C-alpha cells in the first residue's frame, strides 16, 4: 500500500482494451475521459479568446470580420461555460476523488455516471457541430437573449439543444453526488469529518439539481418559439422578453456558484495540506459553502438592473448580492488564518492557491461594485463586467482547476511532473492573466462596451496590453500541458502520498488507486486535516481539532 | 437520516461487487422528481406572471376549454394513482397476479387520458387555436389569449409527454415482474420509484387542471 502501484494492478492497467473504457462504470475512468474532453474544449475556447484579443489590437479589421467576431465571443462563452467550467471541477475531480475522499468504492449510481458523460459528449458535439458543418454560426452571445435569439438567421437551434442536453448531464451528476454523499460514506465518516472539497461538491450538487431545470424549460420554450411559434417570449404575441432574462438568470446566476464552490472546497484542502495546519474554522467553512449556495438563489436579478425592473426589487436583489459577499469573505479570511503560523511549503498547487486568493479577492470586491445599484448603471455591459467575470471565473475556478490538476496528478497517474517547470507555469499564468484582464477594468471604467468589434482610438493601448497578456497566458497554458504530457510518458514515479496529506485518497488509497479504490474500506476516526500541531507553545485557542489527535 | 435500509458492502478484493441500496435509489428518485417539479415550476412562474398581466384574457381563454374532458381526465389520473399504489402493495404481499392487473389498469388509464387529450387537442386545432408562425385563428386573438393558449399547449403538452414516458416505464417494469428478474416481492424498489414518478405526473395535472380549466 505504501508504494507506487504502477507495476501492479490499478484502475488504469486492469484492462487496457478500448471497450473497457467505453463501457466503464469506474468513476475514476469516467473522470479521466471528462478530463481529456474538457482540456480539449478549454484549448479551443482559449484559442477563440486569443484570436479575439488579436482582432482588437487595432481599430477596424485586424484578422477576422465583424460577424465572425460575434460568433467567436458566442462560442467562447458557450464552450467555456457549458463545456468547461460548469462541469469542470465536479465532473473531473469530483468524480475521481469524492468517492475516495469519503471512503467509498464508487458513486451511488455508476451507470448513471457513465450516462452523464455520454450526454456531455452528445451536448458537446451538438454545440460544436455548426462550427465545422453549419452554414452559419450562432451569434447571440452565450446568454441567448430573446428577442434576438428568436429572429437571428444564425444557427441557434443546435447550441440550444446542446445546452439542454448538457443541463441534463449536469443534473444527473448532481443527483448522483448528493445520493453518494448521503449513502456511501465509510464507517465513522460523519458529515463534519468530510474534507471541505466534499462539502463544496455537496453544495454544488444541490444547486445543479435545483437550478438547472429552469434553464431547461426556458430553452424548450425558445426552441418551441423558433419551431412552432408558441409565443411565450415574443412581444408580437403578447410575450415578455424580460421574463426570459429572469428565467435565464434564475439558473445562470446560481450556476456561477456551481463553478466556484467546488473550487473553494479544493482551496481548503490544498491550504491545509501545504500549510500543514488544521483548517481554521472547519465547520464554518462547511456552513459557508451551504449558505453561499442558498443565498446565491436570491441575487440573480443583479444581472438585470438596467432591464426594467421595480425599484424595490432592485434594492432587495442588491442587498442580497452584498449579503453573499459575507460568507465569501469569511472563507478568504479563514484561508489566510489557516496559513498563519503554519509550516508553509510553496509547492505548485499552493502557488496556484496563493495566486487565486489574490486574484479572487479583486474579482470578489469588484463584484460588489457591480452589485451596487448606482455604479452598476455606469458599468453595466462594459469591459468592467468582462474583467470581473474573468477575475472570478478564470482567476478563481480555472486557476483552482489547474491547482487541482497539479495537486492530484501524481495520485491519478502515479507519475510526477517537473516541479521547476510547473512553477514557471504559475508565474507565466499569473503575470499573463493580470496583464490580460486588468486593463479591462480600466477600459470598462472609462466606458468601453463589451462585445464590441470596434473601439475608439483611446482604448487601443489598453487592448494591445491586453493582447500581450493573452500571449503570456497562452504560453503558460501550453507549457503546463506539455509538462503534463512529458510527465505521463516519463519515468518519474510519484510517491504514494506525494504531499504527506491527511485525506483518505492520499493515506489509504494506492497510487494510482486500484479499481475499487481501497484494499479495505477504511474506518474513519478523525477529521480530514489532523496535522501534527505546529502552533506555538502557548497554543492557539481558536484552533479546533476535530476528532482525536495523532 | 435512517440507515436501516439494506446496504450490503463487500469490502473484499473482489473486482465485482454487489451494491444494493434501496434507500439510496429512492433518494435519487426523489431528487429527480425535485428537478421535474422545478421544470414545471418555471412554467408555473410564467403562468402567474402573465395571469397578473392579462387577467381578463386568461378568463376568456379559460372559458374556451372543455371542462367535461378536463374533469374526466382528472378522475382518470386520480384513479390510476390508486391502482398504481395498489400494484406496489400487492407485489410486496407476494400477489404477482393482482399486482400486474393493477399495473395494467394504471397503464390503461394513461391511454384513456391520452385519448381524451387527443380529442381535446383535435377540437382546438379544428377551431384554429394552435400556435403557429404563419396561420391560424390564434394569431387574430387578443395578445393575452395568445399567451394563454401558448402556455396551455406548452404545459399540457409537456405533461402529456410525461404521461407517455411513465407508461413506457411502467410497461417495462410489468415485463420485469412477469419475468421475475429485476422486480420481485423482495426487490420492488424499481416499481416503487416508477410509482413515485407516476404520482408526480398525476400531481402536476392536479395543478394544471384548476389553473387552466377551473380558474375563470
Describe the structure.
The complex is a heterodimer of chains A (550) and B (216). Chain A is mostly helical and 550 residues long. Chain A has one domain (18-507): Up-down Bundle (Cytochrome C Oxidase, Chain A), CATH 1.20.210. Chain A has 17 helices and no strands. The two termini of chain A are 20 Å apart. Residues 539-550 of chain A have low confidence and may be disordered. By secondary structure, chain B is mostly helical. Chain B has one domain (22-214): Up-down Bundle (Four Helix Bundle (Hemerythrin (Met), subunit A)). In chain B, helix 1 runs antiparallel to helix 5. Chain B is elongated and about 60 Å long. The N and C termini of chain B lie far apart (44 Å). In chain B, 35% of the residues are buried. Residues 1-16 of chain B have low confidence and may be disordered. The interface between A and B is large, with 45 and 48 residues.
Which terms would index this structure?
heterodimer, A: 550 residues, mainly alpha, Cytochrome C Oxidase, Chain A, 17 helices, 0% strand, B: 216 residues, Four Helix Bundle (Hemerythrin (Met), subunit A), 6 helices, elongated
Q: Tally the helices of chain B: what do you get? A: 6
Task: Kindly report the average pLDDT value of chain B.
Answer: 89
Number of helices of chain A: 17
What structural class results from the helix and strand content of chain B?
A: mainly alpha
**CATH structural architecture of chain A:** Up-down Bundle
Poorly predicted ranges of chain B: 1-16
Strand proportion of chain B, as a percent range, falls in: under 5%
What Rg of chain A is obtained from the alpha carbons, in whole angstroms? 23 Å
- What is the global morphology of chain B? elongated
The main pleated sheet of chain A reads as: none
Q: Which percent band covers the strand fraction of chain A?
A: under 5%
Largest interface: A-B, 45 and 48 residues
The total domain count of chain B is 1
Could you please say which CATH topology of chain A applies here?
Cytochrome C Oxidase, Chain A
Amino acid at each position: 500500500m505504501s508504494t507506487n502501484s504502477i507495476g501492479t494492478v490499478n484502475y488504469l492497467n486492469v484492462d487496457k482494451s478500448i471497450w473497457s473504457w467505453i463501457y466503464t462504470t469506474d468513476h475514476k475512468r469516467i473522470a479521466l475521459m471528462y478530463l481529456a474532453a474538457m482540456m480539449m474544449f478549454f484549448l479551443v475556447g482559449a484559442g477563440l479568446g486569443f484570436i479575439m484579443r488579436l482582432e482588437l489590437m487595432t481599430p477596424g479589421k485586424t484578422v477576422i470580420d465583424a460577424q465572425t467576431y460575434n460568433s467567436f465571443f458566442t462560442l467562447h462563452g458557450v464552450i467555456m461555460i457549458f463545456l468547461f467550467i460548469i462541469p469542470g471541477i465536479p465532473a473531473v475531480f469530483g468524480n475521481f476523488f469524492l468517492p475516495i475522499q469519503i471512503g467509498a468504492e464508487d458513486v451511488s449510481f455508476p451507470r448513471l455516471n457513465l450516462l452523464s458523460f455520454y450526454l456531455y459528449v452528445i451536448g458537446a458535439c451538438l454545440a460544436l457541430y455548426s462550427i465545422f458543418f453549419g452554414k452559419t454560426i450562432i451569434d447571440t452571445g452565450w446568454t441567448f437573449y430573446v428577442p434576438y435569439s428568436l429572429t437571428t438567421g444564425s444557427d441557434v437551434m443546435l447550441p440550444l439543444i446542446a445546452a439542454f442536453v448538457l443541463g441534463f448531464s449536469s443534473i444527473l451528476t448532481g443527483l448522483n453526488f448528493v445520493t453518494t454523499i448521503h449513502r456511501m460514506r465509510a464507517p465513522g465518516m460523519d458529515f463534519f469529518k468530510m474534507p471541505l472539497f466534499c462539502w463544496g461538491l455537496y453544495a454544488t450538487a444541490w444547486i445543479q439539481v435545483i437550478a438547472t431545470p429552469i434553464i431547461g424549460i426556458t430553452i424548450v420554450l425558445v426552441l418551441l418559439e423558433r419551431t412552432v411559434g408558441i409565443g411565450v417570449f415574443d412581444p408580437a404575441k403578447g410575450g415578455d422578453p424580460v421574463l426570459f432574462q429572469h428565467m435565464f438568470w434564475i439558473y445562470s446566476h446560481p450556476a456561477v456558484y456551481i463553478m466556484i464552490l467546488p473550487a473553494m472546497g479544493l482551496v481548503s484542502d490544498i491550504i491545509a495540506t501545504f500549510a500543514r495546519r488544521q483548517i481554521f474554522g472547519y465547520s464554518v467553512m462547511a456552513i459557508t459553502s451551504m449558505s453561499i449556495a442558498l443565498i446565491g438563489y436570491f441575487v440573480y436579478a443583479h444581472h438585470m438592473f438596467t432591464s426594467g425592473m421595480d425599484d424595490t426589487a432592485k434594492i432587495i436583489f442588491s442587498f442580497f448580492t452584498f449579503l453573499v459577499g459575507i460568507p465569501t469573505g469569511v472563507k478568504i479570511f479563514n484561508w489566510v488564518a489557516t496559513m498563519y503560523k503554519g509550516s508553509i511549503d510553496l509547492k505548485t498547487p499552493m502557488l496556484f492557491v496563493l495566486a487565486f486568493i489574490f486574484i479572487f479577492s479583486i474579482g470578489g470586491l469588484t463584484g460588489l461594485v457591480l452589485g451596487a445599484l448606482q455604479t452598476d448603471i455606469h458599468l453595466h455591459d462594459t469591459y468592467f463586467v468582462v474583467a470581473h467575470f474573468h477575475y472570478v471565473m478564470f482567476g478563481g475556478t480555472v486557476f483552482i482547476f489547474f491547482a487541482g490538476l497539479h495537486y492530484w496528478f501524481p495520485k491519478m497517474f502515479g507519475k510526477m511532473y517537473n516541479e521547476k517547470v510547473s512553477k514557471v507555469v504559475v508565474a507565466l499564468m499569473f503575470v499573463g492573466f493580470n496583464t490580460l484582464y486588468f486593463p479591462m477594468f480600466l477600459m470598462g471604467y472609462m466606458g468601453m462596451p463589451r462585445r464590441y468589434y470596434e473601439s475608439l482610438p483611446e482604448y487601443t493601448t489598453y487592448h494591445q496590453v491586453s493582447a500581450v497578456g493573452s500571449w503570456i497566458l497562452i504560453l503558460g497554458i501550453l507549457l503546463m500541458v506539455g509538462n503534463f504530457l512529458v510527465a505521463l510518458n516519463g519515468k518519474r514515479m510519484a510517491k504514494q502520498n506525494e504531499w504527506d496529506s491527511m485525506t483518505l485518497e492520499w493515506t489509504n488509497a494506492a497510487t494510482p488507486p486500484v479499481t475499487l479504490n481501497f484494499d479495505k474500506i477504511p474506518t474513519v476516526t478523525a477529521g480530514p486535516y489532523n496535522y501534527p500541531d505546529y502552533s506555538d507553545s502557548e497554543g492557539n485557542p481558536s484552533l479546533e481539532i476535530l476528532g482525536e489527535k495523532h | 437520516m435512517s440507515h436501516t435500509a439494506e446496504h450490503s458492502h463487500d469490502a473484499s478484493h473482489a473486482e465485482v461487487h454487489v451494491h444494493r441500496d434501496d434507500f439510496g435509489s429512492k433518494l435519487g428518485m426523489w431528487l429527480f422528481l425535485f428537478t421535474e417539479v422545478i421544470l414545471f415550476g418555471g412554467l408555473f412562474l410564467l403562468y402567474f406572471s402573465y395571469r397578473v398581466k392579462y387577467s381578463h384574457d386568461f378568463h376568456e381563454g379559460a372559458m374556451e376549454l372543455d371542462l367535461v374532458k378536463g374533469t374526466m381526465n382528472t378522475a382518470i389520473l386520480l384513479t390510476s394513482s390508486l391502482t398504481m399504489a395498489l400494484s406496489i402493495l400487492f407485489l410486496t404481499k407476494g400477489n404477482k397476479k393482482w399486482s400486474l392487473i393493477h399495473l395494467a389498469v394504471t397503464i390503461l388509464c394513461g391511454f384513456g387520458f391520452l385519448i381524451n387529450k387527443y380529442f381535446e387537442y383535435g377540437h382546438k386545432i379544428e377551431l384554429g387555436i394552435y400556435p403557429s408562425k404563419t396561420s391560424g385563428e390564434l394569431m387574430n386573438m387578443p395578445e393575452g389569449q395568445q399567451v394563454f393558449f401558448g402556455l396551455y399547449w406548452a404545459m399540457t403538452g409537456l405533461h402529456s409527454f410525461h404521461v407517455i414516458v411513465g407508461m413506457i416505464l411502467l410497461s417495462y417494469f410489468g415485463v420485469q415482474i412477469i419475468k421475475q428478474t429485476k422486480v420481485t416481492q423482495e426487490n420492488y424498489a424499481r416499481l416503487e420509484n416508477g410509482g413515485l414518478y407516476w404520482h408526480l405526473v398525476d400531481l402536476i395535472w392536479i395543478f394544471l387542471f384548476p389553473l387552466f380549466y377551473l380558474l375563470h
